[in-house]
């Protein structure tokens, strides 16, 4: 059994690994797991630190809220100690600003890589950057007290932490626009009904439900799950005929592997 001593534990992020399951925990409940550039860099580092044995990654937040979004100190002239404030970033050139945002996004991009399945366990507030972090994962299990909201537009900004693509994919353009433009809360029942969440459970059952889901995912052969995930991820960008061809190619690989004829 792998050690549960943290592989990484800093900047409000802790990574632990138990054989095929990794858990990334947001660890600043006193601030409702408010996010900062340091947290985003550490989230990116967590992705780079995953051992090859990991097949499922669980993302969770300590306390009553998953993540209430961006640390508002970033909006103040002084910002967060050791970080450039948004005011300072805005004063830079276009290339510098683009590079800074691209670096921020790296903490949100690895959750859907082909060789893992990621599950966000979401309770309480998941606002702005918190909503986008949950959207970065493959699957979302929510507590019945969840409150999703995309508040960036209300603050004069746009969602820029990779959340717009999965949001539109899950709920469609019109509903995604309405959610972003109004900044309203999306609660558990609507989240499940619209496809934002896979299922909703009482808060007391959130951890055990996610554990059961992780176990079910691990029951499938790894290579078959990787192939299936790749098929589904690419389906929206393929024509019907191209998807049929992709299915044939993937199945041929699986059959050869099962017959011991794979490369």
Structure report:
It is built from ten helices and ten strands. 35% of the residues are buried. It has helices spanning 37-48, 86-91, 94-109, 129-136, 164-171, 173-182, 188-194, 206-218, 222-235, 240-258, and strands spanning 8-10, 13-18, 21-26, 56-61, 117-122, 125-127, 139-143, 147-149, 186-187, 199-201. The strands form two sheets. It has a seven-stranded mixed sheet, with helices on both faces. Strands 6-8-9 form a three-stranded mixed sheet. The protein is globular, with a radius of gyration of 19 Å. The protein has 263 residues and is of the alpha/beta class. Helices cover 43% and strands 16% of the residues.
Strand content: 15-25%
Unreliable spans: none
The proportion of residues forming helix, as a percent range, comes to: 40-55%
- Overall mean pLDDT: 94
Largest sheet: 7 strands, mixed
DSSP summary: helix tally: 10
Shape: globular
Task: Please count the beta strands (DSSP E, at least 2 residues each).
Answer: 10
Report strand order across the widest sheet.
1-2-3-4-5-7-10
Integer-rounded radius of gyration: 19 Å
Can you write the helix and strand succession as a string?
A: EEEHEHHEEHEEHHEHEHHH
Tags for this entry?
alpha/beta, seven-stranded mixed β-sheet, 43% helix, 263 residues, three-stranded mixed β-sheet, 10 helices
What is the secondary structure topology, with strand pairs?
Blueprint: E1 8-10, E2 13-18, E3 21-26, H1 37-48, E4 56-61, H2 86-91, H3 94-109, E5 117-122, E6 125-127, H4 129-136, E7 139-143, E8 147-149, H5 164-171, H6 173-182, E9 186-187, H7 188-194, E10 199-201, H8 206-218, H9 222-235, H10 240-258
Parallel strand pairs: 3-4, 4-5, 5-7, 6-8, 7-10
Antiparallel strand pairs: 1-2, 2-3, 8-9
């Amino acid at each position: 059994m792998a050690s549960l001593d943290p592989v990484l534990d800093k900047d409000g992020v802790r990574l632990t690994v138990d054989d095929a399951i990794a858990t990334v925990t947001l660890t600043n409940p006193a601030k409702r797991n408010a996010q900062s550039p340091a947290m985003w860099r550490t989230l990116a580092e967590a992705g780079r630190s995953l051992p090859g044995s990991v097949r499922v990654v669980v993302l969770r937040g300590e306390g009553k809220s998953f993540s209430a979004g961006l640390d508002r100190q970033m909006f103040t002239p002084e910002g967060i100690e050791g970080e450039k404030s948004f005011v300072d970033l805005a004063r830079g050139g276009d290339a510098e600003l683009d590079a800074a945002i691209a670096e921020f996004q790296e903490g949100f991009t690895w959750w859907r890589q082909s060789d893992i399945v990621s599950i966000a366990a979401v309770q309480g507030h998941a606002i702005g950057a918190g909503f986008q972090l949950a959207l970065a994962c493959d699957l979302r299990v929510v507590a019945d007290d969840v409150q999703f909201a995309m508040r960036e537009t209300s603050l004069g900004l746009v969602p820029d932490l990779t959340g717009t693509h999965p949001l539109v994919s899950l709920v469609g353009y019109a509903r995604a626009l309405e959610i972003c433009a109004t900044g309203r809360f999306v609660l558990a029942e609507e989240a499940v009904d619209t496809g934002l969440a896979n299922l909703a459970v009482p808060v007391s059952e959130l951890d055990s439900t996610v554990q059961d889901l992780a176990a079910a995912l691990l029951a499938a052969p790894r290579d078959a799950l990787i192939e299936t995930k790749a098929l589904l991820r690419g389906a929206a960008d393929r024509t019907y005929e191209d998807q049929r061809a992709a299915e044939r190619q993937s199945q041929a690989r699986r059959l050869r592997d099962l017959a011991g004829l794979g490369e």
